[in-house]
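so my prof wants the structure for this chain in the tokens format not the other one, which i didnt know existed until like an hour ago. anyway here's the sequence
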Amino acid sequence: MISRQIDVLHDTVITVGSFHAGLASNIVPQRADLKATVRTYSDDQRRLVREKVERTIAGVCQAAGARYSVDYTYGLPATYNDPELTKQAAVVAARMVGRANVIQGEAGMIAEDFSYFGREAPAALLRLGTQPKGGTATLHSPYFMVDEDSIPVGIRVMSAILLDALARLKSAPAQI
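here's what i got, hopefully its the right format
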């Protein structure tokens, strides 16, 4: 679907992470349950993908003479980092922990409840390096272990970013 029906220049990921059907290798099961995740950067793309997913499921099932039901729930929206706020946060973070320790990466398909804040006001989601040296487990892995020494560093950096933003607000000209 991604390469045929969706413009590949619009970042979209569809992952079928769970597929359960039957218990025996020589029997066609009566039922199959699939669970998937869809990630996009825009609400318009989210709606478009939902329409195409539902249409594809309907077409495949109609062709096979199968019944189906779809429970399509929108999860969290994509997190959007305000470019100016992100730049200012990086400057403050560099001042706090050194420029070499501030890495500005590419956008990722991160869905966090934090994304709702960015819909109300400019926001920037920062990642704090919390993995111990030599660790390889990713953040949401059951094997992930946090380097607890990183927590006070994160508190200091975030506090400095907040104080910097408040100082800029105080010195900004009044809006009429």
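also thought this was worth mentioning. Strands lie at 12-21, 32-40.
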